[in-house]
Amino acid sequence: MKLFLKDILKEKNMSVNQLHKLTGISRTTLDPLTKDDTVSKKTRIETLERICSNLNIPLSRIVSFDETPSETYSFPEVIYEKKVYSSTEYEFLEDLVLKIKGPKNTTYFLLLIARYQAEDYFEEENEQLFNKLDDIIHYEPEFPEDERRADLEFQAIDKLIIEKALEYKGKFVFRNRAFSLMSLKERTATLINTQKWQLNIEEDEVKQSGDYGNIVGDPAFIDFISSFIVKRFNLKNNLSKIPLSPRDPEYFELEPEKRYAPIPRDFFSLSLYCTSSNKDYDITVNIKP
């Protein structure tokens, strides 16, 4: 993982001592980060997040995720995948269950959820179908037979839109928190034991797997999983549209109603959730393909 903190400090005309006073992070921790070009394996993601928060910049400004395979983590084995489309939400939802070998040959089972949309022209090409669905949703029938007829018509149009969506070959749009990653270990009761999730793994195997809390804050793991997402979802050839935040310089230059309109970005957002005996995590990382 490449590191650009020394360039940022030079740009801001800021010394290491000033950064220490601003963040409260010790000089011992900051010195290597302001001299090296790569992130040390000892560096925790919370440290980088804290620096970015105090400098009012996204994580993608000081680190660049490398696409080279990780030596610490094995390439994910996808043991379950499901992709659906919601014609009422205009959204694809893709679930992937990943089996990963990490440090000390420990196995981890992770759930990756991706949400994205087809480029605008898909909705424009099928505008009549979407409008008809909307009319049926807001239709208030007087008689039971009218309601049954409307339900059948809704199901037929909904099925047609879903078929078209799953055959769609254009670009996809990924918005804020497009990807979420969490531990399957903590969800065995609700996922493995339901008909929705027909996983070819034993519940005990998942329960005895590694604690996600041990790796979620590891920059090498984030680098590794980001690389997998870039390749899996072909992010170099797709689109990202994310709203501005108060951290962005242009945020306060816009009229209030325009501040929340999604704009094209050169990064994609990944959220990492973890509740474990070690620590709770809710980290958002910007992936720059």
Q: Can you walk me through this structure?
A:
The chain is of the alpha+beta class. The protein is 34% helix and 23% strand. Strands 3, 4, 5, 6, 7, 8, 9, 10 and 11 form a nine-stranded mixed beta sheet that branches. A two-stranded antiparallel sheet has the order 1-2. Strand 10 (268-275) and strand 11 form a beta hairpin. The chain is globular, with a radius of gyration of 22 Å.
Task: State mean pLDDT (0 to 100 scale).
Answer: 85
Give a count of the beta strands, DSSP E runs of length 2 or more: 11
Strand content: 15-25%
What is the approximate shape? globular
Query: What can be said about the biggest beta sheet?
Result: 9 strands, mixed
Primary descriptors:
289 residues, alpha+beta, 9-stranded mixed sheet
Structure summary:
By secondary structure, the chain is an alpha+beta fold.
Explain the layout of strands and helices:
Elements: E1 2-3, H1 5-12, H2 16-23, H3 27-33, H4 45-55, E2 63-64, E3 77-86, E4 91-101, E5 107-118, H5 120-125, H6 127-137, H7 144-166, E6 172-174, E7 179-183, H8 188-191, H9 203-207, H10 219-232, E8 239-242, E9 263-264, E10 268-275, E11 280-287
Parallel strand pairs: 6-8, 7-10
Antiparallel strand pairs: 1-2, 3-4, 4-5, 5-6, 5-7, 8-9, 10-11
Helix pairs in contact: 6-7
